[in-house]
Amino acid sequence: MQTETIDGTVVSAAVQRATSKVTVYSEIVFRLADGSERRMDKVAVAPGVAEALQPGSRGRFYAYKAIDHKGIIAARTQGGHAAFVMPSGNERIMLMAAIVGSAYFIVMLMTRGGLSLLALALGVLGGFAYHSYRKLRIESRARYDADSGYAAASLARSEPSTAGEVKST
Asked: Where are the domains of the chain?
C-alpha cells in the first residue's frame, strides 16, 4: 500500500456513482505545473474530499492505493478547502475477519482437537490486512497533518513554483 501527494489543478472529474458515504469517479485528471497530466481511473472519494474535486480546483491532493482499490483521502486547495477522510470500512472488515477466524480456530482446536486451516488462514490474513490498512490510515493522517502550512503558503505566493510535483512513498 502506498500514498501519493499530487500538486496540481483538477482538469476533469467524472462521477460514476455517488452515495452518502462515497463518491466513485470513473476518471480524475490533474494538470501538473510542468504541463503533464496525471490520470486516475476508478477512484473512491469520501464526500468531504469530493467537494474539492471540481474542475479548476488547484491545490494538494493526497491519494492512496490499497490492496483492492484506490482513492483520494485528503485535499488542501488554494481556495482554502481542507479535508481528510479515510474510509475505514475495509479496516473494520479485516479486523472482524481476524477475530472470527482466530476464535473459530481456537474453538475447533479445543473442542475437536483438530486444526481448521481455513479458520487459521482467515485469522492470519485478516490480521495482516487489518495491520496494513491501519498503518496506511495512520501514516496518511500524519502526512496530511505535517502539510498543515501548505494552504497558507500557497495562498501567499502569487505564482506557485512547486505545484506539479508528484511524490510517492
From this structure: 2-87+148-159
